[in-house]
Write a structure and sequence with these properties.
The protein is α+β, with helices and mostly antiparallel strands. The chain has a single domain, classed as Ribosomal Protein S5, domain 2 (2-Layer Sandwich), CATH 3.30.230.70. It is 26% helix and 29% strand. It has helices at residues 86-99, 126-140, 167-170, 202-230; strands at residues 18-22, 30-36, 39-50, 63-70, 111-121, 150-157, 160-163, 177-185, 190-194. The strands form two sheets. It has a five-stranded mixed sheet. Helix 1 (86-99) crosses helix 2 (126-140) and helix 2 runs parallel beside helix 4.
């Protein structure tokens, strides 16, 4: 049967419930929590600090390093093996690339900014939640940024175009599924991450990107509110 009604009752263009908070890890230079549905992401930022060993240093600017980690019993699917994996390394890499366009690290030559993202509980959309949390944590650390980065998954389930796929939709068995994580700079509308697992027509992808602009604006407001609650005297 066609996927005409979402399993959890949401509208096709509706995200799961979102919560956000900054300053959640006391000893970090910046930190944040971002929750969407049953997916929780915590991000901690350390730096800028001297990068060792020295042969990794860039004398022109600072370096951003991201480490993404799902805890062993966090997944709605199979148990996650502890330690690094090919998937965690790939997500760590794309997370860094999604965040770099908003950062100015020119003032920190030979330095590194480390971002650690931990997910104690996940139910789809984990890389997007991690990017949202990391963006807020970088702002909390006081780094110079031209914008925040918002991220959420879009997709197609048995012919229907959806916002924020949950685990039941990602693993839908009765029809084809395309899962498309997108990260965006909300003020400019520029995309910093676009990946796809599955197949979708060009026209449908462009329709989803247009939908993304409104959804990202809503996520941006949640991120700003979380930052303002800690730094209420600063106009963002």
């Amino acid at each position: 049967m066609p996927y005409n009604e979402r399993i959890d009752g949401r509208k096709f263009d509706e995200t799961r419930e979102i919560e956000a908070k900054v300053g959640v890890i006391a000893r970090a230079d910046g930190s944040a929590m971002f929750k969407i549905g049953n997916t929780w992401a915590y991000a901690a930022v350390y730096g800028p600090r001297n990068l060792h060993p020295k042969f990794l240093q860039d004398p022109q600017k600072g370096i951003l390093r991201c480490n993404y980690n799902m805890m062993p019993f966090s997944s709605s699917g199979e148990r996650v093996r502890p330690g690094g994996s090919r998937r965690s390394k790939e997500i760590s890499l794309v997370t860094g690339k999604a965040l770099l366009p908003v950062l100015n690290l020119d003032e920190y030559p030979n330095s590194v900014v480390d971002v650690f993202i931990e997910l104690p509980q996940t139910e789809a959309g984990s890389r997007c939640a991690g990017i949202c949390a990391a963006s807020m944590a970088l702002a909390d650390a006081g780094l110079e940024m031209k914008d925040l980065v918002c991220a959420v998954s879009f997709g197609k389930v048995d012919g229907s175009l959806l916002v924020d796929l949950d685990y039941s939709e990602e693993s839908y068995k009765d029809g084809p599924v395309a899962d498309i994580p997108i990260a965006m700079m909300p003020n400019s509308g520029k995309i910093t991450l676009l990946q796809m697992d599955g197949e979708i027509r060009k026209e449908e992808l462009m329709e989803l990107i247009e939908k993304a602009k409104k959804v990202m604006a809503d996520i941006y407001e949640v991120q700003k509110k979380a930052l303002k609650e800690k730094y209420h005297e600063v106009e963002i």
